[in-house]
Amino acid sequence: MNANKPVIGITGGLATGKSTVAEILKKEFKYYISADEVAGNIVKKGKPALKKLVKVFGRTVLAKGGSLDRKQLAGIIFNNYKKRKLLEKILHPLVIAEIKRYITQFKIKNRIIIFEAPLLFEARMEKMADIIVVVASSKKKQVQRFIKTGHSRKDSLLRIKAQLPLKEKIKKADIVLYNNGSLKELKKNVKSLAKILKEL
């Protein structure tokens, strides 16, 4: 992406703290895009993508009321590689197209753009970013944090395994934020990052 102001891609592994980093940066920079939010809008009740998911995975992925049951869908795809790839084939092109639309729209403003995408590398979105920030932490920390959100250790490891290894993401990063300490430390590091980005 060629422009005066850069597009900053935020990614990382499961429960490394990337959403926390993105939320802090969101307060510092006006133009922010979340791949998860985009995906959530794409599969809302009545949307063509949700109808496609029902057709492919069955009505069991619907909650009462006809909205997407994310927990049910996660249970299907994280236990079946082929079904996970099928889901990605359906959703990734739609998510990428929408993010590109936002970036094009925001570029007109000539401001720094932040976009968070957990599967930035897996979905091959890295070319959409001028600078890639990877939020990393130890696997032990990842599992501990994810268990605290109500998931099992087995579920945590399944999800970590489903993503590109964190060490590979670190190799591809322009900036790495390590989050093995306290929230206070992370916030301090993100504030420093924001200052650097504003000086670009």
Description:
This protein has 200 residues and is α/β, with parallel strands linked by helices. The protein has a single domain (7-41, 93-198), classed as P-loop containing nucleotide triphosphate hydrolases (Rossmann fold). Helices cover 54% and strands 12% of the residues. It is built from nine helices and five strands. It has helices at residues 18-28, 35-42, 48-57, 70-77, 81-107, 139-148, 153-162, 166-172, 183-198, and strands at 7-12, 31-34, 113-116, 131-136, 175-178. It has a five-stranded parallel sheet with strand order 2-3-1-4-5, with helices on both faces. Helix 1 (18-28) crosses helix 9 and helix 2 (35-42) crosses helix 5. The radius of gyration is 17 Å and the shape is globular. The two termini are 15 Å apart.
Counting structural domains, the number is 1
Class inferred from helices and paired strands: alpha/beta
**In sequence order, what are the helices and strands, one letter per element?**
EHEHHHHEEHHHEH
Tell me the fraction of residues in β-strands, as a range.
Answer: 5-15%
CATH architecture: 3-Layer(aba) Sandwich
Number of helical regions: 9
The oligomeric state of the chains shown is single chain
Strand line-up across the major sheet: 2-3-1-4-5
Assign an overall shape.
Answer: globular
User: What is the CATH topology descriptor?
Assistant: Rossmann fold
Task: State the end-to-end CA separation.
Answer: 15 Å
Spell out the CATH superfamily: P-loop containing nucleotide triphosphate hydrolases
Note poorly predicted spans. Answer: none
Helix content: 40-55%
User: How can the largest sheet be summarized?
Assistant: 5 strands, parallel
The number of strands is 5
**Radius of gyration over all CA atoms, rounded:** 17 Å
- Tell me, rounded to a whole number, the average pLDDT: 94
Assign the CATH class: Alpha Beta
